[in-house]
Amino acid sequence: MDITAVVIITDITVVTTITIMDTIIITDIIIMGITTVVVTTDIMVVITIIITDIMVAIIIMAITIIIKFTDVLINVVAFTSAFFNSAKSMFAYSYFHRFPSVCTTLCISPSTSSKL
């Protein structure tokens, strides 16, 4: 075998090996780029989920505060109404027990009922 043939075969082997290595390196670079895009997308998705969770929590807290405030307002109105109703009843009771003739004249008298 001639030395030139050995050199040519060695050169072909080296070039083939370098081409295969270049292909592997290029494939690795492409895979790293895809991995970077996937990781970046994952980070963006996680950030979006966190922001959405925070917004939903804030909306739920606001609705809860509005409901509690409305409940307190309803309780205040009910208490005030009950207080004034009981105050009116107490006033009427004490007034008519102090002045029974007025009650009899105003409430039971036939002349008053005919005017109504």
Structure notes:
The chain crosses the membrane at residues 6-31, 43-67, 73-96. The chain is mainly alpha-helical and 116 residues long. The protein has one domain (3-115). The protein is 96% helix and 0% strand. It contains three helices and no strands.
> What share of the residues lie within helices?
over 70%
Number of strands: 0
Distance between the termini: 140 Å
Structural class: mainly alpha
The low-pLDDT segments are: 112-116
How many domains? 1
| Global geometry | rod-shaped
Largest sheet, described in full?
none
Mean pLDDT: 80
**What is the C-alpha radius of gyration, as a whole number of Å?**
47 Å
Strand content: under 5%
SSE order:
HHH
Write the layout of secondary structure elements.
Blueprint: H1 3-98, H2 100-108, H3 110-115
Helix pairs in contact: 1-2
In short:
The chain is mainly alpha-helical and 116 residues long. It has helices spanning 3-98, 100-108, 110-115.
Key words describing this protein structure:
transmembrane; mainly alpha; transmembrane helix; membrane; 116 residues
